[in-house]
Design goal:
The protein has helices at 3-19, 37-50, 65-69, 78-83, 116-129, 148-152, 164-181, 196-213, 228-235, 240-243, 248-257, 260-264, 274-292, and strands at residues 25-30, 55-59, 92-94, 100-103, 135-139, 155-160, 185-193, 217-225. By secondary structure, it is α/β, with parallel strands linked by helices. The chain has one domain (23-292): 3-Layer(aba) Sandwich (Rossmann fold), CATH 3.40.50.300. The longest helix has 19 residues, at 274-292. Helix 8 links the parallel strand 7 and strand 8. It has 13 helices and 8 strands. Helix 2 crosses helix 11 (248-257) and helix 5 (116-129) packs antiparallel against helix 13 (274-292). It is globular and about 55 Å long. Strands 3-4-2-5-1-6-7-8 form an 8-stranded mixed β-sheet, with helices on both faces.
Length: 296
């Protein structure tokens, strides 16, 4: 046996040991629309999948961005499946990157008339489907549009860029999630940075503002440099970590994705019950909206 094959076998064994008895861990990637969240989720998922780990992407966007990125033409929204009371499996697709994808888009207030039995069945199917998964990466909408997934994910990764509007939006997100949902810990990732110094400057500005006015903890987890290879991979309908693994952007994504266990820490996760908690949270938020805006 070659040394390379031995190392591969050892790495696979270590991954099995690390994942044994552990529930899937969920990370919600949040930020403004132009911060590059969808690309980061796709790249991280590709890295983890290529390492032999089981990854599920939850895409909250109606435009099917994650499916289109990998040229999946038959993907369905959860809304479609709920419409004909189908199985959750009907909305799950396998991507060429090796990850699995579930698009969670549902029309506003569609849960209002969702039968309790169907909701329970979908929750059970989701939990069963994730039994062997290790990571749930959530391509979330900005919390001001849809806060439920960000409110219940095990961990939050706040993505922002050096742009002033991105910094303002990041602060707004922290304020909303801490004030309305009690989220106190945020992992901060700087995207499209010109250098490490540039990224750390942005982080310091955010930390200063948040520490002065909000009771939260911000943790620096790293940065992704500006790299045209990431944009080219998007045009090519693939991931830069697969097509251009030696590019600066791909190397950064690879290093950061493999650091996810460090970001997760030893906090117990609830990934297998995420779907049920999401349904409950969405319904709760909709009830609050209805109570504030009753029909005449």
């Amino acid at each position: 046996m070659s040394m390379g094959m031995g190392m591969d076998d050892q790495a696979a064994s270590l991954r099995r040991l690390l994942s044994a008895g552990r529930k899937p861990c969920s990370f919600a990637f949040i930020g403004d629309q132009s911060s590059g969240i969808s690309t980061i989720v796709a790249e991280f998922a590709a890295v983890l999948a290529s390492d032999g780990q089981r990854v599920m992407i939850l895409d909250a966007h109606a435009d099917m961005g994650q499916a289109r990125r990998f040229k999946v033409n038959h993907a369905r929204h959860l809304d479609d499946v709920m419409g004909y009371q189908g199985a959750l499996e009907d909305a799950i697709v396998s991507l060429s990157s090796g990850a699995e994808l579930l698009n969670l888009y549902v029309r506003p207030f569609a849960f209002a008339n969702l039968h309790t039995g169907l909701a329970h069945r979908l929750s059970q199917e989701f939990s069963s489907r994730l039994r062997d998964s290790e990571w749930i990466l959530i391509d979330a909408l900005p919390p001001r549009q849809e806060p439920a997934l960000s409110a219940i994910a095990d961990h939050l990764i706040l993505v922002l860029t050096p742009e002033a509007k991105s910094l303002t939006e990041a602060y707004s997100i922290i304020k909303q999630l801490s004030g309305e949902f009690g989220r106190r810990a945020f992992n901060v990732l700087i995207n499209h940075a010109e250098s490490l110094e540039d990224a750390q400057h942005v982080f310091r500005r955010l930390t200063y503002a948040a520490s002065e006015y909000l009771n939260v903890s911000l943790r620096w987890v790293g940065f992704i440099p500006e790299d045209y290879h990431l944009r080219r991979a998007l045009v090519m309908k693939t991931a830069a970590t697969l097509a251009f693994p030696k590019s600066e952007g791909a190397i950064a994504c690879t290093q950061l994705a493999r650091a996810l266990p460090l970001w997760a820490g030893r906090t117990p996760t609830e990934g297998d019950t995420l779907f049920a908690r999401w349904l409950e949270t969405v319904r709760h938020l909709q009830e609050a909206v209805t109570a504030d805006n009753p029909h005449p």
